[in-house]
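Hey,
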Amino acid sequence: MDSLQELDERCALFSEADSELSESFIEQLAMLDEELLNTFMEGAEDQSFWLAAAKKSLMNRTVFPCVWGSALNGDGIGEVINIMENLTEPKVYIEAAGAQVYKIMHDDKGQRLTLFKVLGGTLKVKDTVYYNSSDGEKINQLMRLNGGKFEAVSEARAGDVCTAIGIQNAELGDIIAAAPENIELFPVSKVPELKPVMESSLMLPEGIDVFTAMKTLRQLEAEEPEIGLRTSKKTGHIHMRVMGTIHMEVLAESIRDKYGMAITFGPPVILYRETIEESIVGYGHFEPLGHYAEVQLRIEPGPLGQGIIVKNEVNTDDLKIQFQKLIVTHIKEKEHLGVLTGAPLTDVTITLMAAKTALRETQGGDLRQATYRAVRQGLMKAKSVLLEPWYAFEITLPADVAGRAMSDVQRLHGVSGDMEQLGDHKVSLKGEVPVATFVDYPIELASYTKGEGTVSLQSAGYRPCHNPKEVIEQADYNPESDLDNTPNSIYFKKGAGYEVKWYDIDDVRHIKGDFS
């Protein structure tokens, strides 16, 4: 029982082969719920009550019945069957046909396989399905995994797990439905998401160009979207997001086995982020010949981990609703870059305050240009903060070297918490530390503990960088030279457009008034 509790406190040993629940199971069930505990202490012995309570707890995942046994020897099979028969309820599905994508694969011929679980109704071969903003795609073939092999089926019913051929662009977690209006009927369960905090460039083998490699690697990205492929505009190299050295080794082997490409990785670099310390108002103006748009935004700092929140406080009397929606879309559609290192902006709230358009001159794309420039101009005026990723760690190691581990954490600019004794000779140390300083520490730990030390890591989000000056100098980023993210605006005078630097826009902007 103690070993089960180490897995999860909700684990309860189920040891009866008939419909009667053992006293030990009932006691463990009661320990997980205050009301049930009171009932247990009063001496309630009604099996029907405890069966109903166990069923409810199991379906709500507040208890996990466990059995000791061996499938090879047939031990414990009766208990498992008993749990399925007496402690579970058939799930009620809605009639509308829909499913959720949980995995993307490709077969030996490179054909995309979309794996999904049906959440309601029935999906059939040749049905047209919809997801997100898709116009609809036809299911050409359905297959179910049976005994390690895929077998073709004509339909997939609620509760089934199947594979479809013909759905080309659905991503992990997407809801696919037989009718566009039915997508909203299905709750979206969160798909586990890994967030690599480093990036590495790929060295391609001789004879394979970037275009060919990128086309092939897009298949891998569909299966593992966390790798976030991109091509550098400066170097032309392919970059891939990675978790660390071991992840790079696994990816290199997988790419070699799947696609026959013997790629190698360059040294990984940390993926930084940027935010701001104070609220600021940004203006963007775009007015070359025959065009006109001006946008005013307020950018405010938010709590760490917030991401980017977009708000709109413009009245429809001042700006048509379609223009408001367009500007909000333009704010959301782009990964805005900070001005310190060119790292992505995060943890801010961007509010549309005002905008100007012209009946004849405003054309498609004008508001996009003005919006992008407004964000950038505001960032140039704000006090920016460089953020770096942190790990939450748990180090298990011999007790006689625990002092060194605590000193190492401090040396690596981290913070350590309480130390827990594990038996007579080992301890567990938990804490948090910057990824940049800790990335090679597991190797160092294994060395000085002679292989007895282990470390487990989880993402702890982004925090202010411990060495911003050094990182900014190494990045050598000039925001005014980044023409794809310019903070300057375009104005019109004497028959031609001309550029106005970001620091002069406040004096010439068309939207007047103190809106800060």
